[in-house]
């Protein structure tokens, strides 16, 4: 499938907003409603993690599947399948240990939990509300015997996790919602928890133009910015060309120690 990414738009610019509003007038009212809610939440929570946690609480109350970015259950299933298939095609074995950063309500997580050996899946998230929804997914799928870890976190220092432990670290659609300081915090610490030969895959919203953000919810980065940041922390970063062929809206980078 061909990629439908718009790599040059600056969604923050007034010109883009006017053009977009003219082409999609049905989206104006929902956008204004979301913008008003986000302003209020940002006013109450100047710190990004607290702000985004409040966004997730509000979105999850309405619909946990939409809160992780899937407007229908079919899309929720398909997006989880895509993440799962990709890693299995890249050699994920049942004996691997996996850290899923920003695991959400286990859109992909339940498939990894089902596939991996008991206790080998470790999901972390900043949102208590989405982790409660994750436990519901786990129960609905009957995966209790796989005893996954589902843990709340406030930062990405990963200091509560052991050295050289995880074969795969994964963050799907998390850095697309993260300011650069949070991405850097993760890259500064992920090398310590990666097992020898392990890798860290993350997706991001890519631009080839000016880096920008929308409503402090969606962040657009140049590939070079993220690969340079990985290098600064002694990691090798590779743009995953084969992921582009799947037609997902975000791009993927693989980091190794
Ligand atoms: C779009 S959802 C994707 C969830 C899951 N990875 C998936 O693909 O279904 C983003 C998730 O990342 C979480 N998140 C956002 N920023 C985070 C951070 N700095 N650390 C950990 N989780 C974060 C959100 O709470 C949310 O559950």
From TrEMBL:
Position of the signal peptide: none
GO biological process, one term: methylation
Tree of life domain: Bacteria
Keyword S-adenosyl-L-methionine applies: yes
GO molecular function: methyltransferase activity
SUPFAM superfamilies in UniProt: S-adenosyl-L-methionine-dependent methyltransferases
Methyltransferase type domain sequence ranges: 99-200
UniProtKB keywords: Lipid metabolism, Methyltransferase, S-adenosyl-L-methionine, Transferase
Classification via InterPro entries: CFA/CMAS (IPR050723), Methyltransf_12 (IPR013217), SAM-dependent_MTases_sf (IPR029063)
Family as reported in the entry's similarity comment: Belongs to the CFA/CMAS family.
Name of the protein this chain belongs to: Class I SAM-dependent methyltransferase
Organism whose genome encodes this protein: Streptomyces drozdowiczii
